[in-house]
Amino acid sequence: MFTGIVEELGEVTAVENLGDSSRFRLRGPVVTQGAKHGDSIAVNGVCLTVVEHEGDEFTADVMAETLKRSSLGALTTGSRVNLERPMVADGRFGGHIVQGHVDGTGAIVERTPSDNWEIVKISLPAELARYVVEKGSITVDGVSLTVVEAGPDFFTISLIPTTLALTTLGIKQPGDTVNLEVDVIAKYVERLVGDRGTAR
User: Fold this and answer.
1) pLDDT tens-digit readout, 22-62
2) What is the pTM of this model?
């Protein structure tokens, strides 16, 4: 489990197309500390498994389903990525519950800068809109954020200077795709309420 607090801005150093999957090599000096085969690392909000680890780089295989449901398929050598290791049991819960299981993708619609923050509008697939509420949590490219406005096919977020400087959200431009993971608690509540309504 992750919390959506990005540990570092990493870089894709190689991409190998394996037909129905891809293998990525990524550089991240912080997240590779103590990393070993089988460990999990979130890359732009997608939970990937470490296949190999050498120095400050690691490799991970990405299956066709993940490439289809996320923006990872658009990554190329040199792409910057948000990296986070799983939360340790005695760690601080700084963000919210993030599984690293992307629900869909959106796109940056517009950016409105201010003196001390920036409002970003992001498109939202219709099937995910019911899970997004004002002041609720959402994960965008692995970053835990608070929803400012929730529309029928969009939402807005407010980014502080730290987020702009230390994550890919500072460099994403209108038209760029982002990974979205809605609050898993909302999905569980929907399922439980639905089952109660059909229980006999």
Assistant:
1) 999 999 999 999 999 999 999 999 999 999 999 999 999 99
2) 0.91
